[in-house]
């Protein structure tokens, strides 16, 4: 049965929640409210901060209970489709599945609300799994109540170990209490993630990803949540038609994307043995990034049309680079284990400028942090960190080959030279049709024969795609260089578009060629100045070294002369 056949699971809370009174009673019965009050007792009861923390727990419990009940009902419907008239009875694993989803929703809702009222804690572990499965098989209300009770016990235990709980200042105690409660939520989420992403409940996550599941403002893909209206990826809105040149690289990426989409999620194996890494080497501005984003969008659309759960992750330096010792490599491992391979569906990854992440081991002064980063990436590409089983693929690129041989041999197993536009036709298509396509009536309109000369000049200048975009932006700025009339601000959208069309300026083919010539001359002069400055700096350095050598020789000669005289 395809994902479109499964009815969606939509849990949309009304204004004021489903049953906040019952959720409030549940929080009270669990003992969490009493545990918080004991730590931050104020003259008139709870503090503002502790009340906001309890409100977060109540709101999360209210919606999580409804999500659990909705999933339980959907599960019974699926069981009943077998055709039996007997009352369906879920298995233990199925009850655990419902409980795990209920508590996952509880944590996904509570954590961001707690983060708004106190600092987010640094958590480096997860709760022990002993007793977790017994908790999950309980009905949703009992599971949530038990989880809240554990949160209260966690506060009591931590209060005996940490000095923040006994501070003389009430404001410090309440911040400590809320931060500690948040830490429990995150550690519980870690324990659930281990069970749902790598444990016995993983197949249920794969099955759940086949259904549209929205809880409040969260859209679930299996057990993983994102904003209901948020993007499925952080890709730019680039289409295949926007790519000019780079066709060999593009087609290789599309084929790799299709092969990964064919991965069998039930059997947990792919039909082909493939190299999951596509590496592109090219100068800055040649189109490496835009090509990777186009492949990523194609991959997501291809999978969506075939009801295959998919994700595409862009690796940015800010995602993992850390000033803390060994934290960068640990975060890299976490990204690939949890977000890439731990995802219930298939996954694509784009890692731009991958060469900047790994210093050459031949430099002789490799830091411990860099060694750990190399170890992490070697594990990814060797298949020792996550299996190279066809469930994921990665596009990575670099401007220069500044890695050592061991790194290059692993990353560049499927290398391509990315050149961008190379022919006159490529350059004309990029400038006229892609970058200035919406301005065709204003740019060299009716002068089609002149575009051949434009293409020839661009080939001769050997501009990168990014440089051509700069030329296009200059032309666009000239075309749309006008003052808005007062009528514009009173007009509707259609009239505004008409006014822009009426006020835009025309550019002939001679002006386009002049813009290219100006751009090329400016950058040639800039490069010549840079080369001259670099040459002068090198000469100055050589002179300084030569003078230092002469001075050292003179000092050595003088010392030798003194020794002779002394003898």
TrEMBL record:
Family annotation (Pfam families): AAA
Domain ATPase AAA-type core residues, every copy: 282-412
SUPFAM superfamilies: P-loop containing nucleoside triphosphate hydrolases
Protein name (Swiss-Prot/TrEMBL): AAA family ATPase
């Amino acid at each position: 049965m395809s994902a479109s056949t499964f009815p969606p699971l939509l849990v949309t809370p009304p204004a004021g929640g489903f049953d906040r009174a019952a959720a409030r009673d549940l929080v009270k019965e669990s003992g969490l409210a009493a545990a918080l009050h004991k730590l931050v007792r104020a003259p008139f009861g709870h503090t503002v901060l502790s009340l906001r923390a309890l409100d977060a727990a109540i709101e999360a419990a209210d919606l999580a209970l409804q999500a659990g009940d909705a999933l339980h009902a959907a599960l019974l419907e699926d069981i009943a489709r077998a055709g039996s008239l007997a009352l369906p009875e879920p298995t233990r694993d199925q009850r655990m599945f419902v409980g795990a989803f209920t508590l996952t929703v509880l944590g996904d809702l509570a954590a961001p609300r707690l983060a708004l009222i106190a600092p987010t804690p640094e958590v480096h572990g997860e709760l022990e799994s002993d007793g977790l499965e017994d908790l999950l098989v309980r009905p949703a209300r009992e599971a949530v109540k038990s989880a809240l009770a554990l949160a209260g016990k966690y506060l009591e235990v931590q209060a005996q170990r940490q000095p923040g709980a006994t501070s003389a200042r009430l404001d410090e105690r309440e911040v400590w209490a809320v931060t500690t409660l948040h830490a429990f939520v995150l550690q519980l989420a870690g324990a659930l993630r281990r069970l749902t992403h790598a444990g016995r409940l993983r197949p249920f996550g794969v099955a759940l990803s086949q259904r549209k599941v929205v809880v409040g403002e969260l859209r679930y893909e299996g057990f993983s949540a994102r904003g209901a209206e948020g993007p499925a990826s952080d890709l730019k809105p680039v289409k295949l038609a926007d790519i000019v040149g780079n066709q060999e690289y593009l087609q290789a990426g599309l084929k790799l994307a299709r092969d990964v989409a064919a991965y069998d999620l039930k059997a947990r194996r792919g039909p082909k043995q493939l190299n999951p890494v596509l590496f592109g080497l090219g100068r800055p501005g040649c189109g490496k990034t835009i090509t990777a984003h186009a492949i990523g969008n194609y991959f997501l659309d291809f999978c969506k049309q075939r009801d295959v759960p998919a994700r595409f992750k862009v690796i940015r330096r800010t995602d993992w680079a850390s000033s803390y010792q060994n934290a960068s490599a640990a975060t890299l491992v976490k990204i690939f284990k949890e977000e890439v391979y731990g995802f219930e569906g298939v996954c694509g990854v784009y890692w731009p400028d991958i060469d900047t992440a790994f210093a050459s081991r031949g430099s002789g002064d490799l830091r411990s942090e860099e060694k750990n980063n190399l170890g992490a990436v070697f594990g990814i590409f060797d298949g020792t960190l996550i299996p190279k089983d066809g469930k994921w693929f990665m596009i990575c690129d670099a401007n220069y080959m500044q890695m050592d041989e061991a790194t290059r041999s692993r990353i560049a197993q499927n290398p391509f030279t990315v050149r961008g536009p190379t022919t006159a036709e490529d350059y004309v298509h990029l400038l006229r049709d892609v970058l200035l396509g919406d301005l065709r009536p204003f740019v060299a309109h009716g002068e089609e024969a002149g575009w051949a000369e434009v293409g020839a000049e661009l080939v001769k200048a050997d501009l990168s795609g990014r440089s051509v975009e700069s030329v296009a932006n200059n032309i666009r700025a000239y075309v749309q260089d006008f003052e808005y009339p007062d009528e514009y601000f009173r007009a509707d959208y259609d009239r505004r578009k008409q006014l822009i069309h009426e006020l835009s300026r025309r550019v002939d083919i001679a002006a386009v060629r002049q813009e290219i010539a100006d751009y090329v001359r400016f950058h040639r002069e800039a490069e010549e100045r840079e080369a001259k400055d670099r040459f002068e700096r090198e000469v100055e350095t050589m002179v300084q070294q030569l003078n230092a050598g002469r001075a050292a020789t003179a000092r050595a000669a003088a010392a030798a002369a003194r020794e002779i005289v002394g003898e």
